[in-house]
Amino acid sequence: MKGKGYNRLSLAGLLGLFGLIFVWTLWIAPPEQFPRAILLALLLGPLLLPLRGLLHARPRTHIWTSLLSLPYVLIGCSLAAAGEQRLYGVLMVLLSLALFTGCVGFAQATKQR
Question: How many domains are contained in the chain?
Answer without folding.
Answer: 1
